[in-house]
Amino acid sequence: MLRVGLTGGIASGKSTVAELFSQYSIPVIDADLIARRLVEQGQAAFEDIVQTFGNQVLDINGSLNRQILRQLIFSDTVAKQKLETILHPKIRQQLLQQSQACNAIYCILAIPLLFEANMTDLADRVLVVDVEPALQLERLCRRDDISEKQAHNIIKNQCDRQQRLAIGDDVIVNDSSIDSLKQCVDKLHQSYLSLAKTSAISCQHSDSHGQ
Description:
By secondary structure, the chain is of the alpha/beta class. It has a single domain (2-197), classed as 3-Layer(aba) Sandwich (Rossmann fold). The chain has 9 helices and 5 strands, in the order E-H-E-H-H-H-H-E-E-H-H-H-E-H.
């Protein structure tokens, strides 16, 4: 099965692209969703986070206060590295298990930090959703209701745009209408179907020769 790694900078439109692929009944395995589940009360990552950062990252109900944790990791590089050390191996394991369990011709691995978390090897092909920096900044400020300074800090914590584009086999420039985005996704969907079929045939050939 072909595994397509979907990535892009914050507020680039990755979630919209993932949703458009899912409309073709293509499984989307979302790293952010996995991360949210891993930090719920009772999960191993939750216990590790509390042990590492203390009760300051909890709300009054004893659940993880994501806003406080987010502020902490964006203002403290060491704290960010500690959180990544806890989460990334667990996220990686879940992405691998869920993609192996998929019964589809191809699947989408939606991984915002595909490059930063060294998870490019999980994907057979990388799709980057790209957006001009000024538009990205505007979207992020509007979406999260934050200042330009806060938005700049968040963007700065992600990998450089050119680094991300360099690892992309395919790129969607998301600076136009939703209809334009749908057309891009449709073309890529057809391309991935073709690639997946070709890959499956070549695997069958190599299996038959190996017997």
